[in-house]
Amino acid sequence: MRKESCLDKTPPRLIDNAGIFLEKMQRQALDGDIYFIDIIFMPPAFADLLSIFTCLWNGEVVVQGISPLRDRVGEQISNIPLTLRDDATIDFAERSRPFDAEGMASQNTFLVRDGKQTGFFFDLLIGMAISG
Question: Which helix or strand (DSSP H or E) is residue 14 part of?
Answer without folding.
Answer: strand 13-15
